[in-house]
């Protein structure tokens, strides 16, 4: 079957897999919808994207993705409200950031309409895959990788842009304890830390495994020079609340400009929560934990939304955070998910109707 | 056709592509031999490798290589001497480094016999692909990547180890001018710079493109904190000769422990060339260029062997290197390639007979 949506060609899957999916018990990014968007870069141009059945990708063994890590991605979510309407959250920011990442990785930038019209066509075709249950959503993974061939260490001459989607539940199950890193680093000054580049993630896995063995779920990365400044948590930006002030580090060429992060800053300000965007030292956080002024820490990101941190480890000492009744984390999470799922007004203009 | 070599199963290609190859005009890593070694990691174990026809790799779109850059590789060469005997150069060092890289990227380490016996079986099957011409060799590319599926940012549960080979000529055509980098960086303290991780290469492409636009072929990376210490050139380690002393930076968690680099250090010492392994400042190199004591700079790596540098740029100023008749670079290159190609004795025990 073939059709056209938003001027995008659609090749439909012969059968659906949706009846095999237990929408009441969704894990994160584990089950994939029936279709995907595919768009190829060849001979100096992005070709028009198509919606095709979700299907394997076949590459030459010399394809540069296998050798030189030339890949970038984004993370987004689609929400279905109680009336069945479908919404995205600040999708143009994801599009822009994908191109910022692409440029740093020497990947050709993508035209806006290929991204936006392609995504909308994909969501229309797989609309039934968007969960309506509380706390679930359709996780959307746009990614670009080097499909061109050759062992020369230089940018590829061919790329694939693909969007896959996965109906998903919570990213973290249970409480999150973090380890503040003293030895390993995520990114360099002048490096690719601000890009959603594949290699940034692989480099975190081993130190994170070491942290998991010690009983933590995530690592909080610090600067590679002094390990004294808190940067981010790899899949999340980090916020701390000292007394009543909410603090997060400034973005830099080492830190991802998180869309949830900047939305929380705006939301908190609009709710008259004192917000500071400034460098945070580990010493300051440890002192605040000791004297009781550290009230909350949480991570913020598309996958995890807002993920409260129950405690942190630093220099072999564990610090527990207080268990408060009314946290900024729960308040801000409700604010942001209510906007995302069309349960409330959207004074910021963040919500985006898919059709 | 199926056979067994070194206890490795061989599935032969139905036809050879070798007659299409112009062995007198080989580029680098552009044409691939008839076979490849393939070895899969599943259910917590590396399965026995097989030699199979060179063939495409098929992966799910959620395979972690596309998203999280979990990949490592090696570069090696096989040489055929005038009697047709086949030689490798310090292959166990490549094997060990592959596992060092793998560990840092949370990739399961590979058994030595799978690597060594697999490689030898592959070279026996594709022996005709090993060039005998002066300056050419069979470039060997062992690599491991995450083939397991899922969008969760965590190590994959399945991997592929593959060795492909490519009859190759010189890596660089013509002279190499380098730019000493003042803004961008290759690696962080506590990062993955010492590993041959895919992501380390992608991050270099954009700054290298900027350097190429200014008329340079390569970037010399400096430390990310002060940009005052010379590190490496991404595909090569860097040596400088000031007066008669050969100097190269120490390896660290930011710098690859190059096999050509350490061989050159040993070779130079055995030839009574004064060698210093110590930090090199950019200031020192610029001063030496100005006062005429900077005699040579060259890169050293498996692909490029020894690649003389004709000049460098720094802070918008170009510095030319003198054109000497008898350079350390040409002398040491002859020493190392004579050992590699069995033209001379091998007092170090570096040469390795394939059969």
Automatic annotation (TrEMBL), chains A, B:
Query: Which Gene Ontology molecular-function terms are recorded?
Result: L-isoleucine-2-oxoglutarate transaminase activity; L-leucine-2-oxoglutarate transaminase activity; L-valine-2-oxoglutarate transaminase activity
- Protein name per its UniProtKB record: Branched-chain-amino-acid aminotransferase
The record's family statement is:
Belongs to the class-IV pyridoxal-phosphate-dependent aminotransferase family.
Q: Which UniProt keywords apply?
A: Amino-acid biosynthesis, Aminotransferase, Branched-chain amino acid biosynthesis, Pyridoxal phosphate, Transferase
Per its record, the protein catalyses: L-leucine + 2-oxoglutarate = 4-methyl-2-oxopentanoate + L-glutamate; L-isoleucine + 2-oxoglutarate = (S)-3-methyl-2-oxopentanoate + L-glutamate; L-valine + 2-oxoglutarate = 3-methyl-2-oxobutanoate + L-glutamate
Per its Swiss-Prot or TrEMBL entry, what cofactor is needed?
Answer: pyridoxal 5'-phosphate
**Enzyme Commission number(s):** 2.6.1.42
Signal peptide residues on this chain, from the entry's feature table? none
């Amino acid at each position: 079957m073939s059709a056209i949506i938003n001027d995008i060609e659609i090749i439909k899957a012969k059968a659906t897999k949706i009846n095999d999916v237990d929408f009441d018990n969704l894990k994160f990014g584990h089950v994939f919808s029936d279709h995907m968007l595919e768009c190829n870069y060849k001979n100096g141009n992005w070709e028009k994207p198509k919606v095709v059945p979700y299907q394997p990708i076949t590459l030459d063994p010399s394809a540069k993705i296998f050798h030189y890590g030339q890949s970038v991605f984004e993370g987004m979510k689609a929400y279905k409200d109680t009336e069945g309407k479908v919404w995205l959250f600040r999708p143009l920011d994801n599009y822009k950031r994908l191109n910022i990442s692409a440029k740093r990785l020497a990947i050709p930038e993508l035209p806006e309409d290929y991204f936006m019209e392609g995504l909308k066509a994909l969501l229309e075709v797989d609309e039934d895959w968007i969960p309506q249950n509380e706390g679930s959503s359709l996780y959307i993974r746009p990614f670009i990788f080097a499909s061109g061939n050759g062992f020369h260490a230089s940018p590829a001459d061919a790329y694939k842009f693909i969007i896959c989607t996965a109906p998903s539940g919570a990213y973290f199950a249970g409480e999150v304890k973090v380890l503040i890193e003293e030895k390993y680093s995520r990114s360099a000054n002048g490096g690719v830390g601000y890009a959603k580049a594949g290699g940034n993630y692989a480099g975190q896995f081993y130190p994170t495994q070491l942290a998991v063995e010690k009983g933590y779920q995530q690592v909080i990365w610090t600067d590679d020079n002094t390990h004294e400044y808190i940067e981010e948590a790899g899949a999340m930006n980090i916020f701390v609340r000292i007394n009543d002030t909410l603090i997060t580090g400034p973005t830099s060429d080492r830190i991802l400009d998180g869309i949830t992060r900047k939305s929380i800053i705006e939301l908190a300000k609009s709710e008259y929560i004192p917000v500071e965007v400034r460098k945070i030292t580990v010493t300051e956080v440890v002192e605040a934990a000791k004297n009781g002024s550290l009230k909350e820490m949480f991570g913020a990101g598309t996958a995890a939304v807002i993920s409260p941190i129950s405690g942190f480890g630093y220099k072999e000492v564990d610090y527990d955070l207080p268990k408060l009744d009314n946290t900024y984390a729960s308040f801000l999470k409700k604010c942001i998910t209510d906007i995302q799922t069309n349960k409330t007004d959207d004074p910021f203009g963040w919500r985006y109707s898919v059709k």
